[in-house]
Amino acid sequence: MTLPIFLIGARGCGKSTVGRTLALAQGCQFIDTDYWLQENAQQTIAAIVEQEGWDGFRARETAALEAVCAPSRVVATGGGIILSEYNRRFMREHGVVVYLCAPVDVLAERLQAFPEEGQRPTLTGKPISEEVSEVLAQRDALYREAAHYVVDAAQSPDKVVSDIEAALQLARAS
Ligand code: ADP
Ligand code: MG
């Protein structure tokens, strides 16, 4: 049995992109909690936040995390999943948690190039690099607290995948 792998990190760090490739390489199923909860709710995240507020969305996110947690899965999570202490502990206790860490300029550049992939409502209404910088300042310590491994996500997707695989070998050997 292989523990689920939880990929955490800021919007744009590559959780979905890298997660799909990693799942294929490991013979695992790939699940995206944001996608899963939108399918389950039959609503977009924007609509959920509008109707239920961020608290309503966060409750659905925790339920999604619990529902998708199963062996042989790669789980890409939403950027704010680590805000809840329960979620941080849940992931650490039930799987291997990998933080895809990238600097603000890299994240902002990716989000600017592909704005439609960050379909979430803006958190602050500020310009993208400012928002990324503020959000990362608030969350970096929480990502690190939740993670078993921290991987440099500013590298090419293939290199990020191979670094995660090296970390997983360590995890499985210990
Ligand atoms: P997340 O799921 O963490 O929000 P995505 O996987 O959707 O991030 O990636 C956001 C954007 O950045 C996508 O357009 C993707 O193609 C690009 N991207 C992701 N990882 C990398 C990488 N390692 N190198 C270059 N571009 C990347
Ligand atoms: Mg994603």
From TrEMBL:
What EC designation does it have? 2.7.1.71
Query: Does the record carry Transcription as a key word?
Result: no
GO biological process terms on file:
amino acid biosynthetic process; aromatic amino acid family biosynthetic process; chorismate biosynthetic process
Pathway the protein acts in: Metabolic intermediate biosynthesis; chorismate biosynthesis; chorismate from D-erythrose 4-phosphate and phosphoenolpyruvate: step 5/7
Q: Which cellular component, as a GO term, is one annotated location?
A: cytosol
Reaction it catalyzes: shikimate + ATP = 3-phosphoshikimate + ADP + H(+)
> Could you say which cofactors this protein requires?
Mg(2+)
Q: Where is this region: LID domain?
A: 112-126
As for subcellular location, the record says:
Cytoplasm
Q: How is the cofactor bound?
A: Binds 1 Mg(2+) ion per subunit.
What InterPro entries does UniProt report for this protein, alphabetically?
P-loop_NTPase, Shikimate/glucono_kinase, Shikimate_kinase/TSH1, Shikimate_kinase_2, Shikimate_kinase_CS
Fill in the subunit field for this protein. Answer: Monomer.
What's the stated role of this polypeptide?
A: Catalyzes the specific phosphorylation of the 3-hydroxyl group of shikimic acid using ATP as a cosubstrate.
Q: What NCBIfam families does the annotation carry?
A: PRK03731.1 (NF002988)
Name the record gives this protein: Shikimate kinase 2
Per the UniProt record, the source organism is Kosakonia quasisacchari
The organism's taxonomic lineage, starting at the top: Bacteria, Pseudomonadati, Pseudomonadota, Gammaproteobacteria, Enterobacterales
